[in-house]
Design a protein that fits this description.
323 residues; alpha/beta; Arc Repressor Mutant, subunit A; D-Maltodextrin-Binding Protein, domain 2; 3 domains; two-stranded antiparallel sheet; 11 helices; globular; DNA-binding; LysR_HTH_N; transcription regulation; WH-like_DNA-bd_sf; transcription
């Protein structure tokens, strides 16, 4: 075995190990699939071990590949941290920030960050879901996002960092003539027997669908079947009129035509929102975002959980682990 391993070879291995797909891994690393395959084969020769079982239909890790995985992650994380410490802040380029949907807490954090760092270019993006954004963060095509960090796969969380921003109260969007629309707030028990849309079938919002399933469990509420993704107010109105399916949302969700937004109560379900970025990323824009999030959270009590609030235990632990 060689006494020296190039980090590039470990990155090739890690990308394939996480995607279990050579084409997707090559796209993530911006290399040709042939070059990626060549690097993996070279790593296998240098280690004297077969790392993947390859077939025409699937790729799987061998026991030796499973054994290498945690070592590769630690080695690459250490390299990223070392380089970040010595190259200084990367402030020459714009910082790309996913705010998911206009009007939400993420937009307020971004607006304040721009005031705090007026000489930094903070550019907004709309990725629709932290699961989808996480892949873009790790590929370097996005720098920061917002969402439910605990809802990500642990493999992804290990390569990302986060800062809790808010326990955001959840709500339901109803057709304006729905039986529950006259209520000022909708008790969860009142949704028993309903099917509520929560992004099922959208691979970019898995963390949101999972949160809904945990909230609905044991309450007689079903996650609605996958539906076409409505982009824009007109499409939302059309799909709502066609399906008449309530939609799980947060209380700050922007108003939509021919529908009403009602907060959920008894208990008050909370959506845990974190600012999320790539580990090792150094940029004054990230510092501004973190400062803005902390100031707003402190000023408006965003991280004070109401006594009647509901949140999954895993989320509560992960949100508290940052303090």
């Amino acid at each position: 075995m060689s006494a020296h391993l190039e980090p590039r070879l470990l990155r090739a291995f890690l990308a394939v190990a996480e995607d279990l797909h050579f084409t997707r891994a090559a796209a993530r690393l911006y290399v040709a699939q042939q070059a990626l395959s060549r690097d993996v084969r070279r790593l296998e020769r240098e280690l004297g071990a077969e790392l993947f079982v390859r077939s025409t239909r699937q790729v799987a890790l061998t026991p030796e590949g499973e054994r290498l995985l945690p070592y590769a992650r630690r080695a690459l994380q250490a390299q990223d941290e070392l380089l970040a410490a010595f190259r200084g802040p990367d402030t020459e380029r714009p910082l790309l920030v996913d705010v998911n949907t206009p009007g939400l807490v993420s937009g307020r954090v971004l607006a304040l960050a721009r005031e705090l760092a007026p000489d930094c270019e903070l550019m907004s993006r709309f990725e629709s879901g932290l699961t989808g954004a996480a892949g873009e963060l790790l590929a370097g095509r996005l720098d920061a996002s917002f969402g439910r960090f605990a809802g990500l796969d642990p493999v992804l969380r290990a390569r990302l960092d986060h800062q809790p921003v808010r326990y955001e109260p959840m709500a339901v969007i109803l057709p304006e003539d729905h039986r529950l629309a006259p209520l000022d707030a909708v008790p969860l028990a009142a949704l028993a027997g309903e099917q509520v849309y929560a992004g099922a079938g959208n691979p970019r919002t898995l963390e949101w669908t999972d949160l809904a399933r945990q909230l609905f469990e044991g309450r007689g509420i079903e996650v609605a079947a996958p539906a076409p993704l409505a982009v824009g107010a007109d499409e939302f109105q059309r799909i709502m009129a066609k399906t008449r399916t309530p939609v799980l949302a947060v209380c700050d969700f922007p108003a939509m035509p021919t529908s009403v937004l009602r907060p959920l109560v008894d208990p008050v379900p909370l959506s845990p929102v974190s600012l999320v970025w790539r580990k090792g990323l150094v940029h004054r824009g990230i510092t501004a975002l973190r400062t803005a999030a902390a100031r707003l959270a402190d000023a408006e009590g965003w991280l004070k959980r109401p006594a009647e609030g509901w949140i999954p235990a895993t989320d509560a632990l992960i949100m508290m682990s940052r303090f």
